[in-house]
Amino acid sequence: MIRTKPTPPVSLFNCLLSALAKKKHYSDVFPLYNRMNSSGLLPNFITLSILINCFCNTNRVSDAFVVVGSMLRRGFSPNIVSYTSLIKGLFMEEKIFEAIRLYKNMFKLGCKPTVVTYGTLIDGLCRTGNTNIALKLHEEMSSGNGRHGLDCKPNLVSYGAIIDGLCKEGMVEKAKEIFLEMKAAGIAPDVVVYSSLIHGLCFDDKWDEAKSLFVEMMDHGVRPNTVTFNVWIDALSKKGKRKQARDMLEMMVERGVSADLFTYNALLDGFCRAGKLEKAKELFYSLPAKGCEPNSYSYNMLIRVHIMKRKIEETLKIFREMIPKGVSPTVVTYNTLLCGLFHAGKVDDARKMFDEMQDHGMVPNSSTYSILLDGLCKNNRVEEALEIFRTLKDSNFEMTIQVMNTIINGLCKSGKFEIAWELFQRLLQRGPVPNVITYSIIINGLCKEGQLEKANCLFLEMEGQGCSPNYVTYNTLMRSFCDNNELPKVVELLHQMAKRNVQPDASTFSIVIDLVSKDKKYRECLDLLPTFPMQEKEKDDMFTFDSVA
């Protein structure tokens, strides 16, 4: 076409570029466009629109805006298709505020959004964890977009996006409402919508409702696909219902639906969570025969279960298989291995693994450093941990409270409380903001140092800093008061726990047993203790310490 004289019209080139873009051959579109330019062919509005779409779908939204500039210079105005592509591109790069700003600017530029634009916005907002904003947009659509003078009702795509987003946020009841609203509007749910809602119901432990919905789906002639079955198998495996998960796989095969790597990884996850090492290995090594090569997620699960069983040598052997088989270890892989090596006391091997991780181009994250510092402290190498911590402070590493908690805890447990206290004071002045774990560690340290009054003062200061104590914080302080025979203080703290609905655990009951055993009039002591409302899943009514006694 380029060599033909005279050159065919740009519209024919656009047909080729459009076909490639629809098939997602974006890497072919860009060089062909460049060849058109170098041959003196001037792109028209459609050419540039195709280019914008391709850039947005390849996470190159900045380049897409450059094309918009070129479009304006040539006297063209972006249309709703271009704006929708740009909004999608911004969401793909998690530039949420820019996407919303562009949506608002569309109205000022006289460009009215379509149902596709709204669907793109809702999907983008849900995918980036902004489901509440997406819900408001959906409600605006349902009520007729009166504020903007539009009549743009939700369609199957926008309903599917909002239902999926709500389910992933745990707002299953609201998702059910939207689902009923969708059916009332005469829009038949497809397999994607059914799968999303089934997923939400399964993870909300509403198995009977999920089954009813599955039956309804098939009664309406909607065939479950691989994703639908994967949702079931994944949920059942994570909830420890391994037999039901295998039964679902059998049903999947019977119905002629192909299992994929996600299916088998879900089953593998179930075996690993239950510590079923042999079953996990059997499934893992059978994957190639099933047409599925294990990926990094598969390896990470198998490595994790070997670490759980403290089989370090076997773990390292599995790890060494990864790269020769074309599977790249992830940060999670290395973090799991570091945990296992430190737990086994193989500190030098762990240090080598940490170095190897960086040699392979992996950037350690805050979890990596927490594992490293914790492992060194627990293996009596506190000075090394402090040295690494100081190096981090002097580098560009963004210190997290997770890392700070680890080093403070390590210092407290190794008898270096003064340094731990100094770091804690720095946190209060410079950040990151201490959380309930930080306060619990320091309160425990003060108690062990015999500074009970100071620990109590810090406990009282917590809430003033916007941090509510949890059962660990209460138990720590109560244990010290109990050991010091300050029984009224223990009773006072128990009443605070009950008032704030902080549930007691086994340690709390152990403290109470010690408390009443120290008081000869234990019955009177029990009468002073509070009543705790139990969680809904545990008990329907109130629970008292007296009932345990």
TrEMBL record:
Keywords: Repeat. It comes from the Eukaryota. PPR repeats lie at residues 9-43, 44-78, 79-113, 114-148, 155-189, 190-224, 225-259, 260-294, 295-329, 330-364, 365-399, 400-434, 435-469, 470-504. One of its GO terms (molecular function) is mRNA binding. The keyword Cell division does not apply. It holds the Pfam family PPR_2. The keyword NAD does not apply. Belongs to the PPR family. P subfamily. PANTHER family: PENTATRICOPEPTIDE REPEAT-CONTAINING PROTEIN 1, MITOCHONDRIAL, PENTATRICOPEPTIDE REPEAT-CONTAINING PROTEIN 2. This is Pentatricopeptide repeat-containing protein. It comes from Morus notabilis.
